């Protein structure tokens, strides 16, 4: 997890309203945050989920819906996670034929 230089993990835990031990476990990969915790961390960092998942090297912008399937697998997984979060946040369930 990238933290801006002005924010210690202790301060981030306080701003996000989560325990320092929890944040430390997430940071070292011992735990994966649930959607609510991830949203709290993003709010504390004043960033969007998209910014949180953005890697340093940019990729080309998708111009057509079907271009999404030509993306690297790790990008597809991140898009699926974000899509799942947005659907969950708005109480929308995925159709049974999609996972």
UniProtKB/TrEMBL annotation:
SUPFAM superfamilies: lambda repressor-like DNA-binding domains. The keyword Flavoprotein does not apply. PROSITE patterns: HTH_CROC1. Residues 12-52 form the HTH cro/C1-type domain. InterPro entries: Cro/C1-type_HTH, Lambda_DNA-bd_dom_sf, TransReg_Diox_bact_type. This is HTH cro/C1-type domain-containing protein. It comes from the Bacteria. The lineage of its organism: Bacteria, Bacillati, Bacillota, Negativicutes, Selenomonadales. The keyword Mitochondrion does not apply. Gene3D superfamilies: lambda repressor-like DNA-binding domains. SMART domains: HTH_XRE (SM00530).
